Amino acid sequence: MIPDSNDCSIPIATAFYPSLSLLNHSCDPNIQIIFKNGIECFVRSNRTIRSNEQIFNCYGINYRSADYKQRQQLLSDQYFFHCKCQICKNESKKFEKRQNK
Ligand SMILES: [Zn+2]
Asked: How far does the centroid of ligand 1 lie from the alpha carbon of residue 27, in Å?
């Protein structure tokens, strides 16, 4: 990933990091992964993480960059799951209400 001027990342390749692959996704992650020198990466918290709180990564699309429907579609297409993070739980209720009108 290469940071762009809007503080987002532009994918240029895929790599496998066994430790990072253990992290689950959230559309509101509590960490940020920083890649350095093309081979090293660091995990940095972006807010306080309590002792029993799960560490969440973002698999490429978060609630700031896409709406609920776009996120669900991308995560389903690329990772074959339906996101049920706290943000998505809240937004799914709103989305379902809009769909039922
Ligand atoms: Zn989500």
From this structure: 4
Å from CA of 100 to ligand 1 middle: 21
What's the number of domains the chain is made of? Answer: 1
pLDDT band at 50 (very low <50, low <70, confident <90, very high): very high
Dmax over CA atoms of the chain, in Å, equals 51
Q: CATH number of the domain that 65 lies in?
A: 2.170.270.10
Cβ neighbors of 2 (< 8 A, separation 6 or more) are 9, 10, 12
State the distance from the centre of ligand 1 to the C-alpha of 83, rounded, in angstroms: 5
> Is a pLDDT exceeding 50 seen at residue 1?
no
| pLDDT for the residue numbered 8 | 57
Range of the domain at 50: 2-100
Amino acid residing at 51:
S
- CA–centroid distance, 25 to ligand 1, in Å, is 7
